[in-house]
Structures are given as C-alpha cells and as structure tokens.
Amino acid sequence: MRLSLNKPPPPGTLLQLLDRSQQVVGLLSVADADPHGVVANLVQVDRPGIRVGSGFSVVASKLTKGLGR
User: Fold this and answer.
1) How far apart are CA 12 and CA 46, in angstroms?
2) What total of structural domains would you count in the chain?
3) Which residues, in sequence order, are bridge partners of residue 24?
C-alpha cells in the first residue's frame, strides 16, 4: 500500500489504519520510502471486508510501538 505522509517513518514502524470515523481497522508496517511516498504492508485486519479508500488515515504513537509483536 502506498501512503502520502508528511514525514516518512523508518522501515518497521507500525501505523494504525483508521477509517473515516477514526476507528482502528488495521495495522500497517512501513516497508520503504521513496520520492513517491511510503510503502507499507497490511499486517493486521481488525474489520474484515472493509474497503480502504482515500478517506482513511494512519497514525503512529507510543501505543503502536508495542503492537504486532
């Protein structure tokens, strides 16, 4: 999945995927960054069947540092 972020995080950073109502729907792991944006992989789905679109957002916080282990 390609993301447009204001600051590219280092590879391995975990990001929560939020829907339009700011509910967590999944977890992404940053794989790489290039001039076109950040590439992240979906590593956890909390709401199967949801369609991800441009209205979704991602967030990293102290809480995501302990997730995915």
Assistant:
1) 20
2) 1
3) 18
pLDDT in tens, 9-26: 899 999 999 999 999 999
Tell me the two tokens of residue 44. Answer: 């956890």
Nearest-5° Cα angle at 37, 34 to 42: 105
Examine residue 12 and state whether it is found in any structural domain, yes or no: yes
- For residue 21, the one-letter residue type is S
Whether residue 66 is contained in a domain is answered as no
Give the up-direction half-sphere exposure of residue 64: CA atoms within 13 A in the CB hemisphere.
20
Whether the CB-CB separation of 56 and 42 falls below 8 Å is answered with no
Q: For 16-53, write each residue's pLDDT tens digit.
A: 999 999 999 999 999 999 999 999 999 998 988 888 77
Rounded-to-integer distance, Cα 52 and Cα 66, Å: 24
